[in-house]
Structure formats: structure tokens, C-alpha cells
Write a structure and sequence with these properties.
Helix content is 1%, strand content 42%. It has 2 domains: 307 residues, Glycosyl hydrolase domain, family 43 (Tachylectin-2, Chain A, 5 Propeller); 149 residues, Sandwich (Jelly Rolls). The strands form 6 sheets. Strands 21, 22, 23, 24, 25, 26, 27, 28 and 29 form a 9-stranded mixed β-sheet that branches. A 4-stranded antiparallel β-sheet has the order 1-2-3-4, with no helix packed on it. A 4-stranded antiparallel β-sheet has the order 5-6-7-8, with no helix packed on it. The radius of gyration is 23 Å and the shape is elongated. It has 1 helix and 29 strands. By secondary structure, it is mainly beta. The two termini are 26 Å apart. The model has no long low-confidence stretch (mean pLDDT 96). Keywords: Glycosidase, Hydrolase. This is Family 43 glycosylhydrolase. Pfam families: Glyco_hydro_43 (PF04616). Belongs to the glycosyl hydrolase 43 family. InterPro entries: Glyco_hydro_43, Glyco_hydro_beta-prop_sf, Glycosyl_Hydrlase_43_Enz.
């Protein structure tokens, strides 16, 4: 368990006011650093804030520290069509400095910033270029540069991965979108030793839904290389090879905050609101952890970092990790005490038809949000828009003997029944299929938080806890207390 004290670690692992998607975890010295994009709460586009960094001691992942802003979009020397800092990655160079690779929206050039420390203020360094000094990625025939992943191998070679693979094969400027590609960098960390070549083409042999889309990330465990990527809205997947730049074979699915690929869930029928995905794996001692993001605020532009322990088998293959509320906790949460509702990991309206329109799903699904605007302090996130058929799930708790009530803090205007179940969820399960461990009348008409207490009969041991509402009106959930 990666914590020095008894403090529990929730998912998302950063404070609820922080929106860091596309997280790339890296260990420098004795700390784990998270580099990612930076969404703005209430924003209207991806990545509207500047880069910030968080870190934690490798032996205590409950102790996250805000490092502050590390790079500002105003430092980028070009005026792009959309001044948005997309998903970055960082590597330590042979000179001991740290290099941050990033791309601005629509730029297709791979830019680099440099700093003497992992989380100091980075300064613009230049753009990745060919050996003859030409900036790569802006001319017709170049491979489109998007979502950098940078990797320093044990032999000193540094590899830069990139790529974007939508349905079309070229963009409007004639840049090639053939799949994931890689090049080696020179010692200056900015000059290509060789031009990029494709390692994951669009016709790569893998399950149909698992083709490369974006979000390149490379890791090495033992003697094997793991290329991690996003397969559209189908979660994070990986390929494996004995080499960093060729001969990859499909490995499997790693994670989706919507649990796509597990228990029958698909991109059109998910356990949690679904969308793009981006992340990677880190190894701490003998354990592995997958970092990803989830969606909040009923939109695509308020993404939060989540993480889970992930298991590797004896043959070097990973088993897909389930989305949970405990994430990095090292085990289930205590079956007593008060928990914030924003750690929900299952959230859907189970009365909606699978072919419901996007508008209907947005209006009838509950979602995580917060009061106030975008900020760097002040946690008040909660579940909003609970209504008839909505189900909110939290996994997992080590339930203890003698705890037979759950007090739920709610506000809104609703009348009906709130039910609690500990039965496992799966795709296609109807509301009547869930055995009920407790229920209570909910009748509320208040802008203030009020408690509703439900008597429960839950077996001791490790259990999920789900709230189901049937009735009229809408309400919010702030927290709940297992008594």
C-alpha cells in the first residue's frame, strides 16, 4: 500500500477542483510527477488552461503536492489557430535537464521546452526538426505530429512517438495520418536522427475496436516495450515488442473510466459517461499503476485524472483494470465514515434505452460537478441531476459488522424512493434485477443540504455500494456516511 499513514486515497486522486487529463506519470528521484493537459471547469473546449504539475513521494501516494504552473501558452512563439496546449510528455536528457514535448491545437509541429528541475518553470527551447534544420510536421507529406510520447531507453537512445489516425488518411494540408509513428532524437533532444516511420498502421492486426487513434505513450518493463495508446472511445490499449521501434503485436485493453470492455459494457452502453482517453503506466517496486482520466460536468471539457492498480501476469501481459472509487488506495475503503459523492465510479440512468439520443442522455443522466468557477483551491464537488432511474455506484468498501445505516446528504426537489444495493453491475441489467439491501422515502424541497437515512442489511467484507432513485423530480448528492 503506497501510503505512510492511514489516510485513504480516493479516485480521482487529485483534489476535486483539479482537471488534469492525459496524465503521463514519471518518477524522477524519489517523487512521482504527473504531466498532463489542463482543462478549465466550465470551459467550452479542451485544454483551456496552462500546464501545471502535481507530484507525490513514491512511498506515499496520499500526499499529492501542487507544484504550480510549469509552462504558459504565451511562451509559445507562434500564433496558432487555437491557442490550446494539448497533451505533453517529459523526459530527462543526458545533460540532466528535463525536456517537455508538446503540441498546440492544429499546429502539427512538435515543440519543446526545457527546465533544470522536473517541476520548475520550463522555457521554450525550439521545435523538433530534421537533420538539415527543417521544422518537421508542417509540410505536405510529413507525418502529422500530435500527442507526443517521449522515451529514453537504457542505451541512451531517445525516441519520440506521435500520430493521429481518424478515418481520413491526410489532413487539409496534405500531412499524412497513417497511424502511430516514431523517430530517434539526437543528443540535443530536438533534432531527428531519422525521419518518422509508422509502427502502428491503420490496418494493424488487432480487434476491430482496438485500432490506434491517438495518445502515444511508451514504457519499458523488464526487457519488453509497451506502446500504450487510445482507441477512440474504447479505452486505453497496448502493444508489446522486444524493440522500441518495430515488431509490435497487440497486447490487450488496459483501462477505461467507463469500464468499456468489462462486464459487457460497450462504447454505446457504458458504466460511466464515456469519451476520449489518454494515459500510461508506472511501476512502483513490484506494483503497476495505470493513469487515465474521466469526464465530469456533463461535457467533454472537464476531465479529471484517475488511477488504478493493474496486474501483469507471468508472461508480461496486463489484465484490464476496473474503474473504482479507491484507485491508488491499495485496497478497499473503510466500511465506515463519511465519503464525498464525487468519488463515484458508476453513474448512469439504467432506465434509458441503449439507443437513447445524446440529448436525452445528457438531460436524464446524473453527473459530477462543482459550484463556483474554475480555481486551484476549495473542494465542493458533488453528484448533480439524480432523477428517476439514475444509479450512482462506489467501489469498494470493507463493510464491518454493526454498521447498518447510510446517511445521504442531498438537496433539490424530489419525491420517491432511494434504494441501496451491493449487487454487481453489468451491461443490460434492469432496475428490477438488483436485490435491495435497504431503501427509504426521499422527500426533499430545499436548496440546503439535508440528510436522508437508509437502514441497510449488508454482508461484512468487500462490497460495492450503489444508490438507485425511483420517483419524480431531481436532486444532488454531496456525501454519504456509513454509520
Amino acid at each position: 500500500m503506497n501510503k505512510k499513514n492511514n489516510k485513504q486515497i480516493f479516485n480521482p486522486y487529485l483534489p476535486s477542483y483539479e482537471y488534469i487529463p492525459d496524465g503521463e506519470p514519471h518518477i524522477f528521484g524519489d517523487r512521482l510527477y504527473i504531466y498532463g493537459s489542463h482543462d478549465r471547469f466550465g470551459g467550452s473546449d479542451y485544454c483551456e488552461n496552462d500546464y501545471v504539475c502535481w507530484s507525490a513521494p513514491v512511498d506515499d501516494l496520499s500526499d499529492w503536492h501542487f507544484e504550480g504552473e510549469i509552462y504558459n501558452r504565451k511562451q509559445h512563439p507562434y500564433r496558432e489557430e487555437r491557442m490550446l496546449l494539448f497533451a505533453p510528455d517529459v523526459v530527462k536528457g543526458a545533460d540532466g535537464r528535463f525536456y517537455l514535448y508538446y503540441s498546440m491545437a492544429h499546429s502539427s509541429r512538435m515543440s519543446v521546452a526545457v527546465c533544470n528541475t522536473p517541476a520548475g518553470h520550463y522555457e521554450y527551447y525550439g521545435d523538433v526538426k530534421t537533420s538539415d534544420g527543417r521544422i518537421y510536421g508542417i509540410d505536405k507529406g510529413d507525418m502529422l505530429q500530435f500527442d507526443p510520447g517521449v522515451f529514453a531507453d537504457d542505451d541512451g537512445n531517445v525516441y519520440l512517438y506521435s500520430g493521429f489516425c481518424p478515418n481520413k488518411t491526410e489532413d487539409e494540408h496534405g500531412r499524412i495520418m497513417a497511424g502511430a509513428h516514431v523517430c530517434r532524437l539526437s543528443d540535443d533532444m530536438i533534432t531527428m536522427k531519422d525521419l518518422p516511420h509508422v509502427i502502428f498502421p491503420r490496418d494493424f492486426k488487432c480487434p476491430e475496436e482496438a485500432g490506434f487513434f491517438e495518445a502515444s505513450s511508451m514504457r519499458k518493463f523488464g526487457r519488453k516495450y509497451y506502446f500504450i495508446y487510445s482507441a477512440r472511445a474504447n479505452g486505453l490499449h497496448y502493444c508489446i515488442s522486444d524493440y522500441p521501434d518495430r515488431d509490435f503485436v497487440y497486447g490487450g485493453r488496459l483501462h477505461a473510466s467507463s469500464d468499456v470492455g468489462l462486464r459487457g459494457y460497450t462504447p454505446s452502453d457504458t458504466a460511466y459517461p464515456n469519451g476520449n482517453t489518454h494515459g500510461s503506466i508506472i511501476q512502483l517496486n513490484e506494483s503497476f499503476y495505470i493513469f487515465d482520466h474521466r469526464f465530469t460536468n456533463a461535457c467533454s471539457y472537464c476531465r479529471q485524472g484517475v488511477a488504478e492498480k493493474i496486474e501483469m501476469d507471468e508472461n508480461g501481459f496486463f489484465k484490464a483494470a476496473e474503474a473504482t472509487s479507491c484507485g491508488l488506495n491499495g485496497g478497499p475503503l473503510d466500511g465506515e465514515g463519511t465519503y464525498p459523492s464525487y468519488i463515484v465510479c458508476f453513474l448512469k440512468n439504467i432506465k434509458l434505452e441503449k439507443d437513447a439520443s445524446k440529448e436525452e442522455r445528457l438531460s436524464k443522466n446524473a453527473y459530477v460537478t462543482q459550484d463556483g468557477g474554475d480555481r486551484e483551491s476549495g473542494e465542493d464537488a458533488y453528484i448533480a441531476n439524480m432523477q428517476d432511474g439514475c444509479m450512482a455506484g462506489f467501489k469498494y468498501f470493507n463493510m464491518k459488522k454493526g454498521h447498518n445505516k447510510i446517511a445521504i446528504s442531498v438537496r433539490g426537489n424530489a419525491v420517491g424512493t432511494i434504494k441501496i444495493t451491493t449487487d454487481s453491475d453489468y451491461s443490460g441489467k434492469n432496475i428490477e434485477d438488483y436485490p435491495i439491501a435497504g431503501q427509504a422515502l426521499l422527500s426533499i424541497e430545499s436548496h440546503d443540504w439535508k440528510e436522508t437515512v437508509v437502514d441497510i442489511d449488508i454482508e461484512t467484507g468487500i462490497n460495492p455500494v450503489y444508490f438507485i432513485f425511483e420517483g419524480r423530480g431531481k436532486f444532488d448528492i454531496k456525501n454519504f456516511t456509513i454509520i
